[in-house]
Amino acid sequence: MDINIGISDEHRKKIAEGLSRVLADSYMVYLKTHNYHWNVTGQLFHSLHGMFEEQYTELAEAIDEIAERIRSIGYPAPGSFREFSEITSIEEDTDQPDALQMVRQLALDNETILRTAREVLPACEEAGDEATIDLITERLDVHSKTAWMLRSHLE
C-alpha cells in the first residue's frame, strides 16, 4: 500500500536513515549503560548503579519510540546487533573500566547521540515532519541533561 502522509518518499527515506542512526547509537549506549550498571564497583557504586539503571530504562523506552517512528513513516527499523554495529557512531566497550571511566565514556556517548540526532533535524524541517522534530527535540533534551549529569560527576 502506498504511503501518503504528506511527506515525500525522498524525505521519508532520508529521515528514516537518520533515525536509524539515532536508533543504533541509542541502542549501543543502552547496552553499554546496562553493562556498566551490572559491573560498576568502588566507592561510587550505590549512586552510579542507580543512576545507570535510570538511564538504561529511559533509553529502552526511547529506542522503542524511535523504532516505531521509523515504521510509521514507512521504513523497516534496524533491529539486529549487526545492523546497529554497521551504522552506529558509538564504540563498543569490551573492557571493564573503573567507575569514573564509565561515567566519562557515557558522557561522551551521550554527546555523540546529540550530534547524530542534530544531523536529522534539517531533513525533518525541510519535510515539515513535526512529529519527528518533536521526537528528536525530546531526545536532545534528555541526552543534554544526561551528559551534563555525567560530566558533573567528573568535576
TrEMBL record:
Family annotation (SUPFAM superfamilies): Ferritin-like
Limits of the Ferritin/DPS domain: 17-155
CDD domains: DPS
Residues of the signal peptide: none
MF GO annotations: ferric iron binding; oxidoreductase activity, acting on metal ions
Pfam families assigned to the protein according to its UniProt record, in alphabetical order: Ferritin (PF00210)
Alphabetical list of InterPro entries matching this protein: DPS_DNA-bd, DPS_DNA-bd_CS, Ferritin-like, Ferritin-like_SF, Ferritin_DPS_dom
Family: Belongs to the Dps family.
Name assigned to this protein: DNA starvation/stationary phase protection protein
